[in-house]
Every structure is written in structure tokens, then in C-alpha cells.
Amino acid sequence: MKRTWRFWIALWAGKIVTRGLLVTGKKGTTLPGKISNWIDPQIMRHLSMAYSDGVVMVTGTNGKTTTANLLASILLEAGKTFAFNQAGANLVTGITGALIQNTRWSGSSQANLALLEVDEATVPKLCEQLSPSLAIITNFFRDQLDRYGELDTTVRLVRESLPQGTVLVLNADDPLVAQFGMNHEGTLYYGVERTPDSRSESIETREARFCPVCGTALDYSLFHYGQLGIFKCQGCGFHRTEPEILAQNVRLEGGLLQFRVGVTPFTLSLQGYYNLYNALAALTAARHLGVSDSMIKKRVGGFYSSSRTDGAV
Questions:
Q1: CA 26 from centre of chain
Q2: For the chain, what is the radius of gyration of the CA atoms?
Q3: 7-16, 256-265, 283-292, 298-307: segment of lowest average pLDDT
Q4: Average pLDDT rounded to a whole number, residues 135-140
Q5: Cα–Cα 20 to 30 A to 151, which of 16, 20, 71, 205?
Q6: Pick from 104, 101, 70, 71: nearest CA to 85
């Protein structure tokens, strides 16, 4: 797609506003993105064309910020440069502003790869303008119901917006996420064999009580937490796919989570089994992007939720 005069005005206006914010000691990508989108509503499409290594998208109800920051930390360890909406501005204006920051006045990108945390409701708008090369989907829970309406609607809109050419990194233990891999070529699953707290029965309220394919009540042989676990539908056969990245021998020692993926042991400094899933999502994506286990292991072991990823644009 040829860049128009509207694009150039939008880009330069965004960069001028960004420069002005920096001069006054303020940070932010939302205002530049808002102005640029007002001038050219297609600016994300034009900006994304500059990333020869593609765009990595991270979305889901919970864990997307931690997952994105952990993946960013791993990529930096591997010496990769990338555009990143690190400030957590994960709506259209914030994403646009982050891409503008990484774009030169000439319109070329300062990096070959973009790493974008994207709010679930923004995914359809994003995918109207660009096709992510890799999409990480963490989980779906009902805590955002007040903003987005019915959870099933949000899940459906995200699923239908993802291009077939996008490689999906999916939480195999969440049936609401695992369904994205049905009839989709290029899917990588991550999951957990069991945790010390996994149980064969659960009294927790679950988001995915029924099969997302046929509506039959799902049978669980093991619950990790919420609707995450090992499930199967007796109606249509939909079931938890065996993950390529499977956390085994999960245990808590000295306040640290220990686990193994294949023959490689990992230590996670973050607390909570939900952060184990975040680490597995980042690990799966990093492997796909060609990062070695030794580099992944180093960053997973030393990462804290407050960790910064200075060096990423």
C-alpha cells in the first residue's frame, strides 16, 4: 500500500508531539497516537509495513502485561531490538504512539520487529490494519465483563479477527483459548501437567463450564485453577491438546517456582501459578523467535513484575 500525504502529515505531527512531550519532561504515547489517528485512521497499517520480522501481539484478560514484559526481557537478552508499547498503553492510540516513537522522520523503522500488548477489545481494530505474525493469547476471564459485555462475544470477536497466517501461541489448559487452534494452521500450545494445588474436583465458578464447540458440559480430569485444567467434551470430542511446551515437576521451593520443560529446568521468581502460565507463554514465543533456552532460562529466573526493559523502543 502506497503511503499517502495524509500518512506523512500524521507521522510528522505525531513525532512533533512526542518530541514536545520529551522536552517538557513528560512521557506518553496516547496523545501522539490520538492526533496521528485523527489525521490518518490508517496509520497503523502504514507503520506496520516497516517491520520485516513481523509483529508479535500479546492479548488476553489477565497476564498480558507480565507476558509482554517478560518476552521483551528475553528478546533483549538475545540482542534483538524491537518496537514495544512498554508503558502498557494497549489501545489503538497507545499502540500507534509506540510505533511512531520507533519510526524515523523518513518513515523507516528503527527495528525489524514490533512487540505489542493489545487489549482484547482492540484486537479486531488492530487486525483490520495489520496481520500479526505471532499472537499470544493468555486466558479469558469474566473480570472485564463490565467493559465489554458478554465474555462469549469478546472471545468470538478476537477469534474471528485473527488472520489465518498468524501463528498462534495458545494456553492449552483454557478451553476458551484452546478453541482458537481448531482449523487454524500454525498453532503452538503451552500448558501445565499439574501443580501441587491441582485437584480432580473444583467448587470454583468457571467461565468455561460448557464446550465452546457444541455446548455440552465439559468433563475435567484435573483442575489447576478456574477453568484451567485438563478437559474433554463427551459430546463432540473437543479436548485439551497436548502442549508442545509443557511445564512438568512444578513445585514451590524457597519462595520460587521450579519447573521443567523437556530436559531444561527453570526457576521463576514471580509468585503464583498464573505467572507460571505467563512464563510459559513468553517461553513458547521466544523459542519460536529463535531464542536459545539458556537465554530464556536466565531472564525467566531473574525477572520480577516490576522489571524494566530499557533498551526496547
A1: 27
A2: 20
A3: 298-307
A4: 95
A5: 71
A6: 101
268-281 pLDDT, tens digit per residue, is: 988 889 999 999 99
From CA 224, how far away is CA 293, in angstroms rounded? Answer: 26
- Average pLDDT across the chain, whole number: 89
Of 226, 219, 237, nearest to 277 (Cα)? Answer: 226
Residue 125, CA distances (Å) to 4, 25, 162 in order: 21, 31, 11
Q: What is the pLDDT of residue 154?
A: 87
Sheet containing 134-137, strands listed edge to edge, beginning at the edge strand earlier in sequence: 82-84, 113-117, 54-59, 134-137, 167-171, 187-192, 245-253, 256-261, 264-268
pLDDT given at position 218: 92
Task: Return phi, psi of residue 49, to 5°.
Answer: -65, -20
Look up cell 517538557; give the residue.
24
Return the CATH superfamily for domain 45-197+240-302: Mur-like, catalytic domain (3.40.1190.10)
Strand residue runs (E) in 73-182: 82-84, 113-117, 134-137, 167-171
Residues in CB range of 212: below 8 A, 6 or more apart: 155, 175, 176, 179, 238
DSSP helix/strand/coil, 292: coil
> Which pairing describes strands 187-192 and 113-117: parallel, antiparallel, or unpaired?
unpaired
- Kind and range of the H or E run holding 249: strand 245-253
Show me where the domains of the chain are located: 45-197+240-302
